[in-house]
Amino acid sequence: HALVHELNTPLTPMLGAADLLVQRIKDEPCASFVKNLNQGIQRLHQRIDELLDIARGDVGLLKLDIEEVDPNEIAYEATDYMKLEAAKYGHELLVEIEGAPLPIILADRKRLHQIFNNLLNNAIKYSPEPDKIVLKAFLDNDNIIFSVADNGIGMDGETMKYAFEYYYCERENRKGGLGLGLALCKLLVNQHGGEINLESKKGVGTTVQFSIPVNNNFRMVA
Questions:
Q1: Residues paired with residue 133 on neighbouring β-strands, in sequence order
Q2: Which residues have CB under 8 Å from 91's CB, separation 6+?
Q3: Rounded alpha-carbon distances, angstroms, from residue 3 to 45, 51, 60, 184
Q4: How far is the CA of 175 from the CAs of 74, 132, 135, 152, 170, in angstroms?
Q5: pTM to 2 decimals?
Q6: I need a labelling partner for 102 at 20 to 30 A (CA). Which of 4, 76, 78, 118 fits?
Q7: Cβ burial, residue 185 (10 Å; 0-12/13-18/19+)
Q8: Position 179 confidence tier, pLDDT thresholds 50, 70, 90
């Protein structure tokens, strides 16, 4: 935990400086160099944040910022945020909400977005051909069920066994990163009192589904 925090501290001024350079340098080729530098620092910051979240989760220090969240709204927010990334690969992001409007839930909006970003990012990266990636949401008894489904490369049984483990990433299909995405999703879903699972078949695609209880006994943050 302390090591990750020490890694994160010097990034704060670097993020600010890189952002300022992007705004001020417009002449090529320097503008492209600065843009790449800024993106690299942003990715590094994201990776360190993921490590810090995992470290906090391991020692019980990961806290949720609870508020009323509209699951209908957040599903569209999540796909809108990832549309540009999906377009780079020729993918289309779709939202399907069954039984709309779904009831309001108590949850951490930022952390829900973090879950969706990881799941949608995986679906985008591991679908080599232009694809329709679908985010579904529906009410099942006292839970909102969310799922992200793709028709990408899928996983074999061995990979599925370890998919939610820290730092695990199937070597032949490695696309970069630390292999923390699904593990972090599981941690955040569990923090909300929900469960997460996946179904996948090699060469066919993957569906990751998670639940968020409607009537969580969270105390609202003042």
A1: 93
A2: 123, 124, 127, 130, 131, 132, 133
A3: 14, 10, 17, 19
A4: 27, 20, 22, 13, 9
A5: 0.76
A6: 118
A7: buried
A8: low
